[in-house]
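Practice set, problem 2.
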Amino acid sequence: MDWIGDAWQDITTPQPVPSSTTVLLTAAGVLLILLVPVAWHVARHGLTIVHEAAHATVAVLVGRRLSGIRVHSDTSGLTVSVGKPRGPGMVATVAAGYTGPALLGVGAAWLLSRGYAVALLWILLVVLALVLVQIRNWYGLWAVLVTGALLVAVTVWGSATVQSIAAYAVTWFLLLGAPRAVLEMQSERRRGRRRGVPDTSDAGLLGRLTHTPGALWVAILLLVCLAALALGAVWLIGLQV
């Protein structure tokens, strides 16, 4: 049982915070991934997992019954929950998807600013484990297992430097990827309108639930993600508010 004690000590002991140069270089690397289409398509699966986990978490918190999560090869996902089809609980559940990665990124940035890189990695592993038991399709199972295997390798066998860089990379990916995903959703909404396809996006659903334009919800989701990015960046690079 010594490894449990060692793991707990690593989780609860702050690690040295890397230099601002290292943090910014990590951000630049993540930004490059977001800008290269092939790299973004692969990495986007991780954001989808967090997106669906956020839907699921809020659904449970507002009293809905979770039926399962699916992650698809085109990086889309689906979380099914049972409950009232309208009302504040449903609005909160739908709104959680695109804001979830951003808010998780803010929490991660706060932890990293205090040196808890290993603690963050273990938290992410717990999130993946909770998603795993709710996955209802083979591709989603594969995506979660591969992501989990990579995270386990870094968390359990990685050096302190590797763990720190990985924790910062994941955090930057959540913060930078969240607004990227919202803009991507809006582009898909525009393409759908041109083809006459019904708007099935989260923004479109939020618009129908609240009797407001879907574009308003795109703006709200984007503002939340950008605010999270700004706050997270302040914590990550050590600026004073």
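Problem 2, part (b): a different protein.
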Amino acid sequence: MNGGVEATESSTLLLDDGEIYVCQDGPRDAPALLLIHGSASSTRSWDPLVPLLTGSHRVIRIDLLGHGRSAKPADRSYAIPDQARRAGAVLDRLGVEHAVVVGHSSGGVVATALAEQRPDLVTALALINTGPSLDAFIATESAVIGLSQWPPTDEQLQRFASTGFSRAGYQIPEELLDDVRGMTGHSLTTSMRATRSYLEQRALPDRLTVLGNPLLVIFGEDDRRWRSSSASDYRAVRGARVELLPGLGHSPLLEDPPRTATSLLAFTVIHAGWTE
């Protein structure tokens, strides 16, 4: 599938308010697919999925400010609109004029904000286990890491990460735990508050209905962080395609990459917008 595809290229782009880590895979002249990770994660959360997408896409991944290998300043904004603005600036710097944007969890919130800011840039949206509103959030003690000490203990990390997966026998990759360890307490808590604030202002289906972008919603049916039944809220968006994946939890991109890729590619082949 990936014969002749260009090798992974990584770089750090210096924006006005911080350095952003960027990965690119696939043919550079193929339609662009921007992947945006969720809270306390990074570009590495997409690693198992990327090889399944590069046969037909230029796959671009970024570490949002405060995450992964991007800067983690204490004096910059982690608000969702600012994270979206940075994502758009990265695409501008890479010379990308149109992209399908895919977001996992709170990354889907950033993707929505990017579509609001840059309707010229975002041709379609795919949201993976992105809660449509705060009403859909499943509140548990393990969903939050206490900041009485930082970095968190291994036990705290395991408890926090455990709700991100539901597939029987799934082993959480150590590098994903390292992503949390590598954050600052400030960048983690501020990023999570930013997502909450954005959803409090307006539910995502209401925002997306106004935008009119083609929309795919993928939800692991056994999500333990957001009620999977809430995926039906997105049907308020005209033409939205909603798919529930049985046996998977909050992170289908990691729990079952082939099944996730099949759903994504069926959508992107229609909306990627090949140009002559």
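Answer key, part (b): The two ends are 22 Å apart (CA to CA). DSSP finds eight helices and eight strands in the chain.
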